[in-house]
Design goal:
This protein has a five-stranded parallel β-sheet, sandwiched between helices. It has a two-stranded parallel sheet with strand order 6-7. The relative contact order is 0.17. It is of the alpha/beta class. Helix 1 crosses helix 2.
Amino acid sequence: MNNNCPGAAPAYFQLRDYRPLEPGDWISQNAATGTISHFVTQLAPMSGVRVISVIRDRGTADELARAKRSLQSHGAALVLTHDGLRTTTALAGKRIVVAVDSVADDALAQDMAARLISGGTLVTAGFLGVPSGGAIALGKRSATQQTALIEWLAELLTRGVLTAPALEYVHWKQGEAGLKQRLKESIRSDGQGAVGERKKILVFDR
């Protein structure tokens, strides 16, 4: 699989392993601009499942509008801020069967759970988009199943059916001048800027 797209397999597991989903079902997810959520948004419609993406309230109106357009262009049926989730009437009558919480925000998770159908499933998928169960989910599958899944996802990526999120690579070498401060600034800024900004990948150059 393309090494630039590590979130595709965990996204597939989120859609398959926690609860059976049928065409016409809805799921909601926060951390919607994260890498795994990015792939969930694209994979879910392939099975007739619609996605509600919940994004942070911070940022300018233009930044929020761009994030919404981007998520919708990749398959999100609805894009809401947390405030919008609490107040919208657009979810009335929708069969929301799964809510995926990736940020450990109790208030947000509660508001997402409140929108589920009776007996719906709230999934804690790993804080801040970390796929804590991804390796376990893969390990539960046979070698043949693992190979088939990876080949299928790689084919979708190669054909452009799945697309990678925007990434920013920060290259570094041990002993490089000013390295410690540059890495600190990069880590500090990640997740603190505008909603939907490029995700940072630290790359060690030997």
